[in-house]
């Protein structure tokens, strides 16, 4: 008995070949990305670690020291590479910017998806996307000519500092956080809303108890991305934060961030010297810190997901 | 697990008298450590409608989806046992699933037309499978839409988005899409459950019409529907096929107490 | 307080915050445009920049920005779509996949100057490509990939699973279903992601300083043979983009009309992003309509 | 549509390979000090006019980058604000120094300050943090805000070596990595003081006299203005390319020195009446 259908099922079909092809090339693409990520991590890590292995800096001293002057040595003959001021500075601006930006981003996202409907989206969406396209240099200059004098006139001092940095970063990360929050609100299935309204819940109750809750993992991701952007932002912050290597003791005195020191120092130091390695160590810390942020947020997201 | 094997009454069809289109032997489905189907043996006769009934969670849908290996792509799910189609055990790695799907079609509980035009919904897969002839495609679109009793309503809007159709129309489009492939067997997973009564009865009419050319296995939780349209009925309970017989027997003189309770509405 | 009242107050607060955002944004844009537009003229757009005299333009920089954008998008869009498909459709749900996702996310938080230096040491020095558009495009790709990949994965995930089942049940491979059904349906959100990515590329300076360079040869706009060093199309020539130009003249520029050039360049940059945005959106809408039959 | 994209990609790829193989025209790479970049760029443009097949590619990136890359042979010329000997990690013996210009560096203060003269000692006290209020140097009662250039910046090294004669240490202060930024901040922030090379000075900031001397071309050439340094273009000792030597000679030619160097606010090397050695000794030239 010769059954063509039977025979055809025993052969590899065109679709199966296409599937293999698709799987293979998409795997190759992710492999390329993973390889690149690995290369960059390796690159940063190997350079960053050599501060401790080659130049003999104590890792703990590096984290907790408060004097940054890689060119010279301290009284004990050890290089002066204390990264504490920058680590604190980065932490402060990132967290403060995220704290301010999050409610605004969520409000804007709710406005666009739940309250004002299509019209709200039509107004806000293009403006938000446009903002992403403004180069950080331009943000920096506006910060310098608007935000810094503003902070100075209200709080005194020079105006440079964490507060000015926070304001600039707030505006810079707002589009990222907002557009990602919008996406996650949109992905909440419509019947959740319908079910809630059917139970005579008000709009706010629906938003607060149903939509925001089920979109929470997405919103958290949006915040991480915002923080990641804030964390990695260099040029704009560098222009308004003042770049003083002192442990920040107020929001309006000059401080510094990991990125600002990194950007400023790279061109002025020679590859392979301590001053240069120390900068790579800062980059390494930057990586580690974003890893930690990431894990924390993931943990929160998982917890939120379980209790739902 | 305690109730793994319950009293059963499974009709065994005589292969000399009945042409068997599809059958399973000791079919098990597990999600991770949890076994959802505990070994089901059923035979489906050609050009007949077989209904699978049972309470929610009885495993009828899981079983149906195992028949054409829809579980393949789901992580942690394993299907063991044998599924016979054209003398082949299609639950084996050497079977090309994509080719098999051309002959064993499926319609899902929720209408899931592609976000494409009505015309493209029907022709998309055909084109991908190599059919390029425009005239032939047009013909198939017309016949399958007619078979699905949708042609008169959409013939002027073939290039409009399928998502603009009503739920019932979408489901009939999905049926048209499935039969456009000219499959041997059509598996339907509660095709009318998401629809209003009028649309549901239209779908039923469609199925009665289709059985002339197709072997149909349909999961339904609507007993009237099963009684109206099917030739044979299998009753599922907790992952087991409890009773399988001609539909009128199941609904009038069931042999197993559980079946009787179910069809008389004592539970479920 | 009754739920109704809370609802009213909450709606009011949301409106107020949305208005504040719009105000901030409008003020920003107005600030840039009002300061910059008076200095913009046709000759500013089409004439070459000058090193230390007044009256220079931004012709080469503007062209470079677009060329670099196109090149880096040609590299990063296919790569990120493929990678996003893998993560969304094929990746097994296990620790390794999670690890890869985390790694990609962390990469996106690297300051662009680190990516730039990596690009400098790898593309410019190691591969001996030199300061060039292609080095810059590759570096920007590194910088953009994480976000784009993530966006693709999420856009694909937002399309309901039943669409994939439908394709599978019709004997289609997941690959065909994804590339021909899911991606067209996800197009609007994919395009949003691409526009955001393009905006980043357009405005990026730090990653380009060490890769595409901060100066460019005087372009000969009548020679479109990419084999010549002064041809605009030569991807191996160094190229200063508009954002880098703004950064450079503000940092080390000695031209007397620095302020005018800088504000005008910012205004043009914003307008270019706006125009790019509009074009990408309308093109995307048309493509979406064609692919999905939506009206 | 897929095919079109694929075709386009193939075309691009071929184009890239083709171009990679054979670029028409010679390229000379000059990398380093961003302060020196505009000067070399203009000179490069003029040089290319004489040699149309040559393209002088001038990039910034900083003194450290320039020296490291020229030492590693990745570029032809490394621009530097400093002597190679002053930069750690550089083996100066492998490099040939070409001093192409002199740059005068001056303190700059906020224009609202009522101070028009400072002594070197006062500068030293201000930048080391001993004097913290303008009233101590004859100005109004206003705290002093010091803005430094980034650590390792050529301008800062030159300024500090001229001002800190007795091993004083700079106070922890704000730092900025470019002259333009420093100028803008000093122009707009009350009570600020910083320093900048002469080429970046404009009306937005005030330049006080130091020990009664005002910075100008003439005060630098005879060393009556003390804070100045050379701009260097380093090449490797084993540099073979004829064009590179030719280009360096071109920059030192009278034409470039008069018309580009002096016009940009640098001081032509040939105008100098004194010479400063690496260790800061100044002697007059005949």
From TrEMBL, chain A:
Residues covered by the ABC transmembrane type-1 domain: 87-297
Superkingdom to which the source organism belongs: Bacteria
TM stretches of this protein: 21-45, 86-111, 123-148, 154-177, 210-231, 278-300
Pfam families assigned to the protein according to its UniProt record, in alphabetical order: BPD_transp_1
Any single GO CC term annotated in Swiss-Prot or TrEMBL for this entry: plasma membrane
Topology in membrane: Multi-pass membrane protein
Keywords, alphabetical: Cell membrane, Membrane, Phosphate transport, Transmembrane, Transmembrane helix, Transport
GO MF, any single term: phosphate transmembrane transporter activity
Cellular localization per UniProt: Cell membrane
One BP term from GO: phosphate ion transport
Family note: Belongs to the binding-protein-dependent transport system permease family. CysTW subfamily.
The protein's role, per its UniProt record: Part of the binding-protein-dependent transport system for phosphate; probably responsible for the translocation of the substrate across the membrane.
Name recorded for this polypeptide: Phosphate transport system permease protein
Provenance organism: Holzapfeliella floricola DSM 23037 = JCM 16512
From TrEMBL, chain B:
GO MF term (any one): ATP hydrolysis activity
One annotated GO biological process: phosphate ion transmembrane transport
InterPro entries: AAA+_ATPase, ABC_transporter-like_ATP-bd, ABC_transporter-like_CS, P-loop_NTPase, PstB-like
GO cellular component, one term: membrane
Protein name: Phosphate transporter ATP-binding protein
Source domain of life: Bacteria
PROSITE patterns per UniProt: ABC_TRANSPORTER_1, ABC_TRANSPORTER_2
SUPFAM superfamilies named among the record's database cross-references: P-loop containing nucleoside triphosphate hydrolases
Domain ABC transporter as annotated: residue spans: 22-263
Signal peptide region: none
Sorted UniProt keywords: ATP-binding, Cell membrane, Membrane, Nucleotide-binding, Phosphate transport, Translocase, Transport
Pfam families assigned to the protein according to its UniProt record, in alphabetical order: ABC_tran (PF00005)
Automatic annotation (TrEMBL), chain C:
Bilayer disposition of the protein: Multi-pass membrane protein
Residues in ABC transmembrane type-1 domain copies: 62-280
Keyword list, A-Z: Cell membrane, Membrane, Transmembrane, Transmembrane helix, Transport
NCBIfam families the record matches: 3a0107s02c
Source organism: Holzapfeliella floricola DSM 23037 = JCM 16512
This protein's name: Phosphate transport system permease protein PstA
Subcellular location: Cell membrane
Transmembrane stretches, start-end: 12-34, 66-87, 99-123, 129-148, 190-212, 260-280
GO biological process: phosphate ion transmembrane transport
InterPro entries (UniProt xref): MetI-like, MetI-like_sf, Phosphate_PstA
Top-level lineage group: Bacteria
Pfam families recorded: BPD_transp_1
An example Gene Ontology CC term for this record: plasma membrane
Annotated family: Belongs to the binding-protein-dependent transport system permease family. CysTW subfamily.
Main localisation: membrane
GO molecular function, one term: phosphate transmembrane transporter activity
Automatic annotation (TrEMBL), chain D:
Keyword Membrane: yes
Bilayer disposition of the protein: Lipid-anchor
Record's signal peptide: 1-20
Alphabetized UniProt keyword annotations: Cell membrane, Lipoprotein, Membrane, Palmitate, Phosphate transport, Signal, Transport
Domain called PBP: residue spans: 29-254
UniProt record, GO biological process: phosphate ion transport
Keyword Transmembrane helix: no
A Pfam family hit: PBP_like_2
A single Gene Ontology CC term: plasma membrane
Matching InterPro entries: PBP_domain, Phos-bd, Phosphate_ABC_transporter
Cellular location(s): Cell membrane
GO terms, molecular function: phosphate ion binding
Family note: Belongs to the PstS family.
Known function: Part of the ABC transporter complex PstSACB involved in phosphate import.
Subunit field text: The complex is composed of two ATP-binding proteins (PstB), two transmembrane proteins (PstC and PstA) and a solute-binding protein (PstS).
Xref: PANTHER family: PERIPLASMIC PHOSPHATE BINDING COMPONENT OF PHOSPHATE ABC TRANSPORTER (PTHR30570), PHOSPHATE-BINDING PROTEIN PSTS 1 (PTHR30570:SF4)
Designated name of the protein: Phosphate-binding protein
Record lineage: Bacteria, Bacillati, Bacillota, Bacilli, Lactobacillales
